[in-house]
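Worked example 2:
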Amino acid sequence: MGKQGLSPPNKGHRYPAEPLTPGEVSLLLRGCSLRAPTGIRNRALIAVMYRAGLRVSEALALRPTDVNTTDGTLRVLHGKGDKSRTVGLDAAALDTVARWMDKRREYGFRNGPLFCTLAGAPMSAGYVRDMLKRQCAKAGIEKRVHPHGLRHTHAAELVREGVPINVIRDQLGHSSLAVTDRYLRNVAPADLIALGKSRTWAEGD
């Protein structure tokens, strides 16, 4: 029997979540050049997925007008289920994004996607996955590093910081508290247990 039609051995396999440590994320960011345009862009993209918890599709769909440097927020117009939301972004990550916005203006880009190629074209999720693999190998990180892993890392950090689950739900763009609860049990079970569910998590809080 030929190889045609055979599925890869890991097709459909769900790997356990492997949130990164702050040190590992720092290694990823430091591996991006602070001078080369692609390094400045990739550093900003990693910062957005990590510090805002965006899905890769949401990050790549951002436009410059979706970044509010005054309020420190990002506007996601078409999240999962085509729902919009506004998420917070800390000052350090926002500075990283602003540096890329300055660079893209130097290239004459005014419209189009925030994260684009140096020709102004949209970037693909495949490029982002490959870029993270390269950065992972460069940094010597043994975990599986992929775009959604940065979202997992963001969620795990919010749990450790004691952020109420309804706030985490809104930041991640989940449809309900039940979805967020299941998500966190996969991403950060030990941290969730340690938190002790001591906060009021009722819908509508």
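DSSP finds nine helices and three strands in the chain. The two ends are 59 Å apart (CA to CA).
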